[in-house]
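Hey, does this match?
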Amino acid sequence: MFDKLLMASLLAGTALLGPGGAHAAGYPEKTIRLVVPYAPGGASDILARVLAQKLSDSLGQQMIVDNKPGAGGTIGADIVAKATPDGYTLLLADVAVQTIAPSLYAKLPYARADLAPVINLATFAHVMITAPASNLSSFADVLKRERANPGSTSVASSGNGTSTHLTAEMVNSLAGIKLTHVPYKGGGAALADVMGGQVDAMFIGSPPAMPLLASGKLKAIAVTTSKRMAALPSVPTVAESGLAGFESIAAQGIFAPNGTPRDIVTRLNGEIARIIQLPDVRARWAQLGAEPVENTPAQFASWLDGEALKWGKVVKDSGARAD
């Protein structure tokens, strides 16, 4: 009888480890693949390469960055969602692959539950930018113009259904205005036309905006975070400029395939949380206008749930669909 009870206890303990639990104690034992679902050179890629080097050093195994661009990040996200849940394939992506894509795409190849949140790496503001010579000097100017002449203000985006588009749609919904949306096939062409004055304004993530603002090629008139950005302290928020309570945050996170052992997720969270507080990493984040975030997997998951509800409503109300 004692032998049977002992065996039952051992089996129960093994079950609690979760899928692949036997591998957690010695993790990592081989190279880790960090999938970035965008082309090289963007914010996700920059963060990934900084993180991969630091994690390679701290974990004692190489972490390689594997760029898999396409379909707004959903191709790379699907690769990770369908990977073996053993901690050796991870995703670093804009959280839109979890918060916006499920509402935006009629047929998404993965479900939100297929990607387990590990950690929120950084949050970014969207910056409302105009040409330096524009007569729009504040978000209040935009509201004043739109209320006097609805639809007279054009806003560029990097494509239908992108966060640059949906942020403008959220403004429309909350302010009761109708900014005229001008979609582009990518951010570069959109920025060029804003700089040239062909389009009035754009909500753009802080990483591509920062160097253009520093060089004087663009003017920032508002940021979309609830508090002013440390990197742009003189630029007011949308909320303090006439649209109380407004907030639109872009973020980059790490995800693992659902079923990855909790021990591994917890270890990765702890290692990454330590790394993003290192002075040299914080300095690199600051150059991108990024704010490091300290959070557990559970806290990240809860935040993502709230963001998915918020953006799902914006997508539905606007009728947005992916290009």
Observations:
- The longest strand covers residues 115-130.
- The longest helix spans residues 297-318.
- Strands lie at 32-36, 63-67, 89-94, 115-130, 154-157, 180-183, 201-205, 219-223, 249-257, 290-292.
- Residues 31-123+249-318 form a domain with the D-Maltodextrin-Binding Protein; domain 2 fold (CATH 3.40.190.150).
